[in-house]
Specification:
alpha/beta, TIM Barrel
Length: about 325
């Protein structure tokens, strides 16, 4: 199977740099990945986070697309519950007009932040906490593709820029809750195994494909599996570097918020963990793809085969930007 490698970038606030550098480091990595031949580069949306720096994927998409040449660029994703479907459609049609054939519009149901940020983003109205997501996703598809039904009150709105190409539409999910909706509405699907590997199963893609076929959409659906991955010259070094991201995820389950730790700090803390906490840490690490280029390539190939998809997107969070760039350089050498 020929596998396309892609990237989901959460714009981590690297401990190796000032927080204000995080977004420029995302741009730097995108340029490297474009040169390395990665297929697409998506940027995430987070609010009020000490770990992730980008609340505005549409601005990052515009910036990255303007400094790269071949790689597709998109949102992974826009947290649609906060926004007007018309405005999102206009924004990404504008991006596709300026960078034809290269823009993806990925949307998600999650808030991307705290309840308080959801309230602030909705103010002076009340947040609907994703209750209207299916309706919003349907409206967004209608605005982008010009397929609003005749009885829709917004049917006659001209979505600018007029007569332009359309971005690819993608729906993000982690445990299958959105798979049926994506298939019904004709969205491509990206499954975030890096969020919930224990509940991320191939049956989700199967359910999605069944709904796509039942809806009678033309062509075949596109699928991406997004995984957490740390690649290094040796397995030992890869596991050491992975500690920063693994500990952050472990800390979140314990209600602990602190900036990224160095790999060495994580190693020292792990040594003093009680057995139950070590087991939790090890379980999180087991859900990552970690190792040498050959080891990562073998596991990625197995996941692609098991999930029946031809594109794997990798999320790589490390303490330093140097390690993150090295991981993406090392990874392509395994294929």
């Amino acid at each position: 199977m020929s596998i396309k490698l892609s990237v989901v970038d959460q714009s981590p606030v690297h401990g190796s740099h000032a927080p204000s550098d995080a977004l420029n480091l995302t741009v730097e990595l995108a340029k490297v990945c474009d040169e390395l031949g990665y297929h697409r580069y998506w940027v995430a949306e987070h609010h009020d986070s000490i770990h992730f720096a980008s609340p505005c994927p549409e601005i990052m998409v515009a910036t990255i697309a303007s400094v790269t040449r071949n790689i597709r660029v998109g949102s992974g994703g826009v947290m649609l519950s906060h926004y007007s479907p018309l405005k999102v459609a206009e924004t990404f049609k504008m991006l596709e007009t300026l960078h034809p054939g290269r823009v993806d519009l990925g949307i998600g149901r999650a808030p991307g932040g705290t309840g308080q940020t959801s309230q602030a983003l909705a103010y002076p109205h009340q947040p609907h906490h994703g209750d209207l997501y299916a309706y919003q996703a349907r409206e967004l598809e209608g605005f982008v593709n010009g397929t609003l039904p005749d009885d829709n009150p917004f049917k006659n709105i001209r979505v600018l820029p007029d007569g332009t190409p359309r971005p690819e539409l993608w729906m993000l999910g982690s445990s299958g809750g959105s798979a049926g909706l994506a298939g019904q509405l004709g969205y491509n699907i990206a499954l975030a195994r890096f969020i919930d590997p224990d509940n991320c199963r191939p049956s989700i893609f199967e359910h999605y494909a069944a709904e796509w076929d039942r809806a009678g959409h033309e062509g075949g659906p596109n699928k991406i599996l997004a995984i957490a991955c740390i690649c290094a010259e040796t397995e030992e070094e890869a596991k050491l570097r992975a500690g920063t991201a693994v500990f952050r995820k472990l800390a979140a389950t314990q209600g602990i918020k602190e900036s990224f730790l160095t790999p060495e700090e994580v190693r020292n803390r792990y040594s003093s963990f009680p057995p139950a906490l070590k087991a939790n840490y090890d379980n999180i690490l087991d859900g990552y793809t970690v190792g040498t280029p050959e080891q990562c390539a073998e596991e990625i190939s197995g996941l692609a085969k098991g999930f029946g998809c031809e594109e794997i997107s990798t999320v790589t969070v490390t303490y330093s930007q140097e390690d993150r760039i090295d991981s993406y350089r090392q990874m392509v050498t395994g294929f």
